[in-house]
Design a protein that fits this description.
Blueprint (H helix, E strand, L loop, with lengths): L1 E3 L1 E3 L2 E3 L6 E6 L4 E7 L3 H16 L8 H17 L1 H12 L3 H24 L3 H5 E4 L4 E8 L2 E5 L5 H14 L3 E5 L6 H13 L6 E3 L4 H9 L6 E5 L2 H11 L5 E5 L5 E4 L5 H13 L11 E5 L3 H12 L20 H16 L3 E4 L16 E4 L6 H4 L6 E7 L2 H9 L3 E2 L3 E3 L3 H10 L6 E2 L14 E2 L2 E2 L4 H6 L2 E8 L18
Parallel strand pairs: 1-5, 8-9, 8-11, 9-10, 11-12, 13-14, 13-19, 14-17, 16-17, 19-20
Antiparallel strand pairs: 2-3, 4-5, 6-7, 7-23, 12-22, 15-16, 18-21
Helix pairs in contact: 2-4, 2-7, 3-4, 4-6, 10-11
This protein binds nicotinamide-adenine-dinucleotide (NAD).
């Protein structure tokens, strides 16, 4: 069994009280790693290290070009260690080796390279200072915020960590990052990689341990200036309450129940595959999954028939086998929650067209079959609540207006898509959908150069793109007045006669 310590102040360190917890491989149900469990003294050590590193300016005072060089090196080291990182990511999170090799690891490296390029793309004064010359000298500066805390979910451990670490340190902040207790390992290793690339001690600290206890200790710590959270809407609300007394800066990337509109002129074969990818990628454990498929009545029967037939081609099984396209769910708890939703869907009148059970040939591991519910109404629980398992609800709509009305009839607003051969028509509908990201004729294609985030209860703030950097900066206006006689300053007449 592998062992991992905490990464604090540029060093691997055991938990101060010597405790460990096990990371379970979701495909085997066996523990594969022992990980140090951070307690209150480790929180104190990490926050103190981050505060010291920020206050003495060892990182934030470096030029943008110097910071860019280090970020770029992080990206290169991730690619050098991609086999090890993919191996750990699959053991922790249960995603397929395909996903780790093709998506997670390269995308993580790309995030660091993107923010390196962004820092290098403009002269320093244009990147961080904006001169506004009239009527007096004014400067708008973008400054780092200070000590930031990043909290990440289990579904995309290393990529989610990179979405916080890369922009936070590009902007000059210090960061303590807390991965999900289900998936701590690759984030810990990323701490070491950043250190090897030249990020100074204390700028990045990684704490693994019991989620709520550790997360709340970090979020409420007085020396923490900003919290960047990705996770469920319920925990996001709790974190917002915890941040309120100190008015901490906060960004929330939360859950979703995203609509996927299939118009009557869609390329049906492509839309079928796209809808399945939109739902069953990573066993449905993706925040922007298109879990409500709204299909035009004219093509509904044909679409559903092809959807069900094509879903049978998804190969559920050992995630390490490159032939496998869908792995297990993260935990027994997540699988049981999925089962409860499937039960609720049946009770409320939905019809399971395929799936709806554990695969009989996979007795070990938290596997669940890709499950398609047809004849769903948008007010059923399976259409309103985030399941975070491989379950999709198919809803028939009469026309474009009904599709948009139902798409927007949700507490959430994270992702969504429109499938149509008529791009102008699809574009009009995309503009009417209340979501932070809408794809046309694609799904899940996130792009490091463009912002990602939620409308409504999917949260606020954006990650990726220049907007993702801005979330880790605060804005200062400096007014530069003339060092002239007081009589030249007419506004002083508001208080003085001469
Ligand atoms: P979760 O909310 O249970 O946990 C997220 C993180 O918060 C974990 O690190 C956990 O340990 C920590 N945590 C739990 N309770 C806490 C508390 N009281 N205080 C501080 N931290 C606490 O979510 P999860 O099950 O790990 O992930 C799935 C959820 O994340 C889904 O709802 C999904 O939609 C969402 N998600 C959103 C995005 C996005 O960008 N919008 C991306 C990925 C996942």
């Amino acid at each position: 069994m592998k062992e991992f310590a905490l990464f604090i102040d540029g060093q691997w360190r055991g938990a101060s009280d010597g405790r460990f917890f096990a990371s379970i491989n979701p495909a085997t149900e066996e523990p594969w790693a022992q990980v140090a469990a951070a307690g209150p003294d480790d929180v104190e050590a990490a926050v103190t290290a981050a505060r010291r590193a920020f206050d003495d300016g060892r990182w934030r005072k470096r030029s943008a070009a110097e910071r860019a060089e280090v970020l770029s090196k992080v990206g290169a080291l991730i690619l050098e260690r991609s086999d090890q990182l993919a191996d750990y990511e699959v053991s922790d999170a249960g995603g397929t080796m395909r996903k780790a090799n093709i998506a997670d690891i390269p995308a993580t490296a790309q995030t660091f390279q993107y923010y390196a390029d962004l820092l290098g793309s403009l002269p320093e004064e244009e990147l961080f200072d904006e001169q506004v010359p009239v009527p007096s000298q004014n400067v708008v500066r973008r400054e780092p915020i200070g000590v930031c805390v990043g909290i990440t979910p289990f579904n995309f451990p290393i990529a989610a960590a990179s979405w916080k670490i890369a922009p936070a340190i590009a902007a000059g902040n210090s960061l303590i990052i807390k991965p999900s207790p289900y998936t701590p390992v690759t984030t810990l290793v990323l701490g070491e990689i950043c250190h090897e690339a030249g990020v100074p001690p204390g700028v990045i600290n990684v704490l693994a341990g019991p989620g709520a206890q550790l997360g709340e200790a970090l979020v409420t710590h007085r020396a923490v200036d900003k919290v960047a959270f990705t996770g469920s809407t319920a925990v996001g609300k709790r974190i917002m309450e915890l941040c309120a007394p100190q008015l901490k800066k906060l960004t929330l990337e939360l859950g979703g129940k995203s609509p996927n509109l299939i118009l009557d002129d869609a390329n049906i074969d492509c839309a079928v595959r796209g809808a399945l990818f939109g739902t069953f990628f990573h066993s449905g454990q993706v925040c922007e999954s298109g879990t409500r498929v709204l299909v035009h009545a004219k093509i509904y029967d044909q679409f559903v028939e092809k959807l069900v037939a094509t879903a049978k081609q998804i190969r559920v099984g050992d995630p390490r086998d490159f032939a496998t396209t869908m792995g297990p769910l993260i935990s027994q708890t997540q699988r049981e929650s999925t089962e409860r939703y499937v039960h609720a869907g049946r009770e409320e009148g939905g019809r399971v067209a395929t799936g709806g059970k554990r695969p009989a040939d996979l007795p070990k591991g938290y596997f669940y079959e890709p499950t398609i519910f047809v004849d769903v109404k948008n007010d059923m629980r399976i259409a309103r609540e985030e399941i975070f398992g491989p379950v999709v609800a198919i809803i028939k709509v009469a026309d474009d207006d009904e599709a948009v009305r139902l798409a927007n009839d949700s507490l959430y607003g994270l992702g969504g898509a429109v499938w149509s051969r008529d791009i102008a028509r699809a574009r009009k509908l995309a503009e009417r959908i209340e979501s932070g990201t809408v794809w046309i004729n694609d799904y899940h294609l996130l792009n490091v150069r463009f912002p990602f985030g939620g409308y409504k209860q999917s949260g606020f703030g954006r990650e990726l793109g220049p907007q993702g950097l801005a979330e880790f900066q605060q804005v200062k206006h400096i007014h530069i007045g003339e060092a002239s006689d007081a009589t030249d300053k007419q506004y002083l007449g508001l208080l003085f006669d001469d």
